[in-house]
Amino acid sequence: MMNKSQLTKSLELFNLEQVDRDIFSWSGKNVGYKRIFGGQVMAQTLIAAYKTIDVKHFAHSFHSYFLRPGIMEKSITFTVDRIRDGKSFTTRSVKAIQDGEVIFNCSISFQKREKGLEHQIDMPDVPEPETLKSEQEIREEILKELKMNKEDMPMFIKQREIEMRPVEKQNYFKPERMPPYKNTWIKTGGKLPDDQVIQQAFLLYISDMGLLGAANNSVGVNFLTKNLQNASLDHAMWFHRKLDLDGWFLYTIESPITRNARGFSRGSIFSRDGKLIASCTQEGLIRQWDN
Q1: CA 135 to the chain's CA centroid
Q2: Could you tell me the CATH number of the domain that includes residue 91?
Q3: Distance between the two ends of the chain, CA-based, in angstroms?
Q4: What is the tally of structural domains in the chain?
Q5: HSE-CB for 225 with a 13 A CA cutoff
Q6: Of these residues, 199, 207, 208, 271, which one is catalytic?
Q7: Do 225 and 30 touch, CB atoms closer than 8 A?
Q8: Domain for residue 62, yes or no?
Q9: Among 44, 98, 200, 282, the one annotated catalytic
C-alpha cells in the first residue's frame, strides 16, 4: 500500500518563502541521497517562476542545466529574471543558489491557452498496469531471493510518493545490457490538488526518475554498479496539455545513444486514454572508473 504521507511531504517542497519581489527561498528538508534530487530543484524553480506571473499563462517549455551538486544540509535561494511579458508568451530565467554559487539554472516559456492544428504519436501497446507488479514488490522479492533484510538496503526499498509498475523486467543485482527503452506505469500515492501549477511542478519533479536509467540499461549498468558515477547534466520538458494526474499514466523512455561518458534519453508521458501530455529529454553523466 502506498504511503500517502510521502506525497504530502513532496508537495511541501513547493512552499517557497518570498524574500523579495523576485527572490524566493527553501529552507526545509531537501530530498535526495548524498546530493539534492534534481527533480526537487526543477520543480521549485518552476514554482518560483510562476510566482512572478500575473496573467493566465502556463508553462509549455522548460530547459535547464545542473551545474553543481546540491548540498543536502543547505537552504536554496531562487532568483527570477523577468525576461519577457507578452500577450501570448511569457519568459522567465531562474537560478538556484547555495552558498553564493549557482547550482542550477533554467529558462521557462509560458503561453496562453490557444486552439490550433493537432497531431500526436500513438501510445505504445503495453500491458495494463493491473497485470504488472509494482517496483516496490519487485525490489522486495529480489532482496528475499538474495536473503537480505530491508534494513540492509534502505534506499532500495524506500517508499515513494508514486507507485511505479515497470513493463520490462530488470534485476538490479545482475545487470546486463538491455534494449535501450523502458516503459513504466505511474500513479500518485494520493490525490493531487486541482491546480495546474502544482500538477506541472509534480510531473516535472517525477520526470527525473528513470530517464538516466534507460541509458544505463543500454550499457548494462545501474545505480548499484561499483565505481559508477551518475549525474544529470541537463533536463528539458514540454507540457502539451492541461494535466490531470488522477489515475495511471505511462512514462515511456528511449535512449538513442550512450558515448563519451554521457547517456542521452527521451521520454514521452501519456494519459491512460493515450493522450500525449508531456515530453522530456535528459543527458546524464555515465562514467565508470577502473578502480
Answers
A1: 17
A2: 3.10.129.10
A3: 40
A4: 2
A5: 22
A6: 208
A7: no
A8: yes
A9: 282
Contacts of 99 (CB under 8 A, 6+ apart): 71, 74
Told to judge if 208 belongs to the known catalytic residues of this protein, a careful annotator would answer: yes
Q: How far is CA 9 from CA 30, 79, 202, in A?
A: 10, 24, 12
Dump the DSSP string for 28-72. S---EESEE-HHHHHHHHHHHHHTT--SS-EEEEEEEEE-SPPBT
150-179 confidence digits (pLDDT tens): 555 555 556 688 999 999 987 777 778 888
Is 111 among the catalytic positions? no
pTM for the whole thing? 0.92
Instruction: Give the pLDDT of residue 151.
Output: 56
Q: Are residues 247 and 187 in the same domain?
A: yes
Q: Reduce the DSSP state of residue 217 to 3 states and report it.
A: helix
Other Cβ atoms closer than 10 A to 112: 14
Does 185 share its domain with 256?
Answer: yes
Alpha-carbon gap, residue 134 to 184, rounded angstroms: 10
Q: Who's near 203: CB < 8 A, 6+ residues apart?
A: 237, 239, 243, 245, 269, 277, 278
pLDDT tens digits, 64-82: 999 999 999 999 999 999 9
Cβ atoms of residues 89 and 109 within 8 Å: yes
In angstroms, the CA 5 to CA 8 distance is 5
> What domain range is 41 assigned to?
11-113
Cβ count within 10 A of residue 57: 20
Q: In whole angstroms, what is the distance from residue 129 CA to residue 66 CA? A: 33
- Specify whether 232 is catalytic: yes
Residues 179-196, mean pLDDT to the nearest whole number: 93
Closest CA to 47 of 196, 161, 206, 197: 197
- In a shared domain, residues 77 and 16: yes
Choice among 232, 265, 268, 271 that is catalytic = 232
Nearest to 213 by CA among 237, 250, 186, 184: 184
Distance CA(88)–CA(172), nearest Å, equals 47
